[in-house]
Amino acid sequence: MAGKLIALEGIDGSGKSTQARLLAESIGADLTFEPGATGLGRVIRQSLLHSSSKEISISIEAEALLMIADRAQDIAENIAPAIYAGKNIVTDRFSGSTIAYQGYGRGIDIDTLQDAIRLATGSIEPALNVLLDIPVDQAMRRIAGTGNQTDRMERLGIDFLDRVRQGYLSMASADPDNWYVLDCDRPIEEIAEMILSRVRDLL
Q1: What residues have CB less than 8 Å from 94, skipping those under 6 apart?
Q2: 203: Cβ–Cβ under 8 A, 6 or more apart, which residues?
Q3: Domain 5-202 is classified in which CATH homologous superfamily?
Q4: Assuming Cys at both sites, which of 2, 105, 132, 170 could form a disulfide with 184, CB separation 3.0 to 4.6 Å?
Q5: What pLDDT, on the 0 to 100 scale, is given for residue 19?
Q6: What's the rounded Cα separation, in Å, for the pair 2 and 46?
Q7: Which residue in 94, 101, 79 sits closest to 9, CA to CA?
Q8: Is the peptide bond before 35 cis (omega within 30 degrees of 0)?
Q9: Average pLDDT for 111-117
Q10: CA dihedral sign, ordered 5, 64, 175, 186
Q11: Closest-CA residue to 71 (of 100, 36, 31)
Q12: Nearest to 174, CA basis, from 115, 127, 129
């Protein structure tokens, strides 16, 4: 029996990385993330998120294709082997992020993006997308409070991130059976319990 893929989605500052880790621990699943979970992915992550514009120039089309390439490698090395071995796997970001950030956020044609995503993912899709929703201004305050350096996506500003957030909400509204939306303005433990309850029903 094949395992299932659960994707945690949301803008930075939503707490999705924490919740992805807690969920994987709770259900005994493998954990992966995008971008950067493979050797190739680490090179892509550094180029996309942590290089300044003075070091490297990346067009929005190249950005999208690099994100999708990272996913293809993650599937080959981590996701597909786990699923076909009957293990469940949790990912911190998946295809929803590409549609939200590069489609709704950057303005790339969504149908074109979906064609490229299908090339990378084949038949592998999340059994459930968990969207941790948070207003952009609240997310930015959370990020600022961590003291961490902002990455290339976060530096695109509030209007960009608001388009991304609205893109996520549009996807979830259009496909409610495959998306579970949570308002993340509540304690971490409470969010984790709500996600775990929903995932246990699925499994």
Answers
A1: 5, 7, 9, 34, 71, 126, 129
A2: 4, 27, 88
A3: P-loop containing nucleotide triphosphate hydrolases (3.40.50.300)
A4: 132
A5: 98
A6: 33
A7: 94
A8: yes
A9: 97
A10: positive
A11: 36
A12: 129
H or E element in which residue 201 lies: helix 188-202
Residue 43 to residue 28: CA distance in whole angstroms: 29
Beta strand 128-133 with 179-183 is parallel
Most distant pair of Cα atoms in the chain: their distance? 49
* Conformational region of residue 134, where left means phi above 0, alpha means psi within -120 to 50, and beta covers everything else: beta
- The pLDDT confidence band at residue 1, using thresholds 50, 70 and 90, is confident
Q: Which residues of 188-201 are buried (b: 16+ CB within 10 A; e: fewer)?
A: eeebbebbeebbee
How many residues can be counted in the chain? Answer: 203
Letter for the amino acid at 79? I
